[in-house]
Design brief:
The longest helix has 15 residues, at 37-51. 39% of the residues are buried. By secondary structure, this protein is an all-alpha fold. Helices cover 74% and strands 0% of the residues.
Length: 568
Amino acid sequence: MTGCSNNLLKNPDKPRLEHDKIELTRNSPDKTKPFEEGTLYELLVADVALMRQHYETALGIYSTQAFETRDEAITEMAFGIAHNFRQPQKALALAKLWIEINPKSVSAHKAIIQSYALLRDPVSALPYAVWISRNENNEDVFLAVTTIADRGSQEQIDSLIASYQNTSIAPGKEHLSQLAIALLLQKSGRFGEAESTIKVFLKKSKNDPRGIALLAEVLDSQKKVGEAAKLLRKALEKNPSNEKLRVQYARLLTDYDRKEALYQFELLNLSNPENHEIKYLLALLYLDQDLPDLAYSKLRDLISSDRFSQDALFHLGVITENKGDDSAALHYYARVTSGRHFLMAVSRSMELILKGFDFTSARLYLSRLRETIPSQVIPLFELEAQFLVRAKQEKEAVYVLTKGLKIEPQNEDLLYARAMIEERQGNFHEMENDLRAIISQDPDNASALNALGYSMVLHTTRLQEAYDLIYKAYLLQPDSAAIIDSMGWVLFKKGEIEKALRYIKRAMKLMPDPEIAAHLGEIYWHMGDKALARRAWAQGLKKSPNHENIITTMYRLNASVIAPENIK
C-alpha cells in the first residue's frame, strides 16, 4: 500500500531542478498546433525561461496561456511546473482546469490528488481517488489518500474517517473503506479500534495480505506479539511465497525469538539473494548469534551497495578488530566516511592508532579527516576534544573547541562541550557565557538551562536565579533524573529540606547514580538521619568505588559509611 501511494503522492522536500528542467522541456506542448501568433511567442518565451531555470517566469506564462487557450497540453505543462516547484494553490487551480477540459483524464484526477496532498487536505482528495479507483480498477489509489493524513491532527484524521465511512469505490467493495479507516486509526494510535476495524475487513477479505499485515502491526503495537506472530505464521502457511509477509514475520521475531528470525531471514535470502536489505539484516542477526564468519561474508557482499556500504564497512571493522587484526580493522573503519556509524568508526580508528602509535599521530589523523570530509568538521572537533579530556589535556581541548567555534560560532554542541570543560577548570564566568549563548538562541534548551542553574548553585550565591533556570528546565523535561536532582539540590540550598528530599528520592529511583546518592546522603545527614545517609552513600560507592563527590561529602561532614559489601 505504501509503495503504491509513494508514486502517486510523491512530495519531495525540494525540487530537483536539473531533472525537472529536462522533464518539463521534454513534455512541452506541440508548437506545430495552430496557436495564434501571440500564444506561440509566449510559449517560446516560457520554454527559454525553463531552459534558463527561470521557473517563476515560465510558470506565470504557462498558467496564463492555459486559462486563455484551455489547451490540455499547455495546462498539463503548467500544472507540472507548479507542482514540482511547490505552489499547491496554483497547481490545484490548474488541475481543476485540466479536469474541466478533459473530465475523463486519469492524469488530471491524479493531478488534483497531488495538489491536495501538498495542501495536506485528504478529505478533498478522496472523491478524485474514488473516481480513479472506479475507472481504473485501482484500489491502491483509494487507500493511498490515507498517507496524506500522515502527521495530521486528530481532527483531520477523524474527518477523513467520516469521509471513508460514507464512501465506496464500487458495489461489493464497501469493506475497503474499513481497511482505510483501520490505517487511519493506527496512525492516530487508537490501536484497539484499529484492531476491531481491520477484523471487520478480514471477514470480507479473509486472506488479503494487506489486512493481515496491518492487523499484525496493530497487534504488535499493543504488545500482543504472540498473536501477531501466530497470525503471520498461519498466513505464510497458506501463502509461503509472500515475501512482504515473511519479512514482516522475520522482523517481528527479532524481538523475542532471534533463532527463528534468523531462519526466516535465511529463507528470504535464499529466495532473493540480491535483496541488500535482507542480506544486511541477516548479517546483523549472525552477529547477534555470535556467528561473525557468516556475517563477514554477507557484509563483504554489501561493500558495493549504495544503501548499506557504510554500515557494512563499520561492522567489518568491528569483526576484524575483535579477531585482533588491527590493520584490517583500520582499513575498514577508514572507509566509513558518512552515515550513522561514521563517528564511531573514527573513534575506533583513534583507539587503534593510539594503541599502535601515539597521540600526535591520532590527532594528525583527525586533522586530515577534517580536510577530506568537510561536512564532518564540527563533529570531528568535538570528538578530538573528548579524547583530549580523557588524556587530561583540558586546556588543549578548549583550544580545539574554540577552533571549531570560529567556523560555526553558534554551534550548540561545541558551546556546551566547552562549557562543561570550563566548569571543571573552575572558569565559571566563561562557562556561563557559553551556556547563555546557547540559551539566547535556544531558550528551551533544557540541558543548557539545567547545567547553568546547577553550576550557579555550586559556584555562586545566586540561588533564586539558579532555581528559575532549573525550574524552567524541569517544566520542559519533568522526567529527567538529572534535572529532578538539580531541583532537589537547589531547594536544599534554599532551605526547603522536605521538598528537596522528595525530588532527590524521585531522581534516585529513576536513576540510581552516585552523584544523586551523594546529594541524598547529605540531605538525610542534615535531617539527622545518619543511618539513611550512610546507606545512601554506600549504595553510591557500591556502584562507583572512590566516587569523588561522595568521598568529599563524607569528609566534609566527618561521616563514616557502611561497607558496600553490607548493602543488599
